[in-house]
């Protein structure tokens, strides 16, 4: 039953039954966004959801805020960092492809130990 459901889902999504799709992977050298100092001092936390268009070479072509944290400083920190990121590109049957993906960032304060 599960195999039939997966096959139906693959066909509905436009995939061929024997296609192998691998999503993009961020590179280990990518630097995480900096915590905005003013929001850190005030003890503010937040979450940003970005939408990215990644080239078949792993470059970020377009990045935009899909869901704002409600704080421009968090949104800008996430955008500024991700614009410099590089990815292992997504592939279909081993061939690199351009793709869109979502990337969440959570800015949170760690308790002092």
Quick structural summary:
This protein has 113 residues and is α+β, with helices and mostly antiparallel strands. Helix content is 25%, strand content 34%.
Please write out the topology.
Elements (H helix, E strand, L loop, with lengths): L1 H11 L8 E2 L2 E2 L10 H6 L3 E9 L5 E8 L4 H11 L4 E2 L1 E3 L2 E3 L1 E9 L6
Antiparallel strand pairs: 1-6, 2-5, 3-4, 3-8, 6-7
Keywords for this structure?
3-stranded antiparallel sheet; 3 helices; 113 residues; alpha+beta; 8 strands
Main beta-sheet strand count, sense and barrel state: 3 strands, antiparallel
**Average pLDDT, all residues:** 87
The value of Rg in angstroms is: 18 Å
Gap from first CA to last CA: 50 Å
Output the number of helix runs.
3
Low-confidence stretches: 1-12
State the helical fraction. 10-25%
Strand content: 25-35%
- DSSP E strands, number: 8
Looking at the structure, what is the overall shape? elongated
Q: Which class best fits the helix and strand makeup?
A: alpha+beta
Helix and strand element order: HEEHEEHEEEE
Strand order of the largest sheet: 1-6-7
């Amino acid at each position: 039953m599960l195999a039939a459901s997966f096959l139906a889902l693959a066909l509905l999504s436009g995939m061929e039954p024997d296609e192998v799709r691998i999503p993009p992977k961020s590179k280990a050298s990518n630097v995480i966004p900096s915590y905005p100092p003013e929001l850190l001092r005030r003890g503010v936390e937040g979450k940003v959801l970005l939408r990215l268009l990644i080239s078949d070479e792993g470059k970020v072509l377009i990045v935009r805020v899909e869901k704002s944290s409600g704080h421009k400083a968090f949104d800008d920190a996430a955008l500024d960092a991700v614009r410099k990121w590089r990815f292992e590109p997504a592939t279909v049957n081993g061939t690199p492809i351009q793709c869109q993906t979502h990337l969440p960032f959570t800015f949170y304060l760690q308790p002092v130990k």
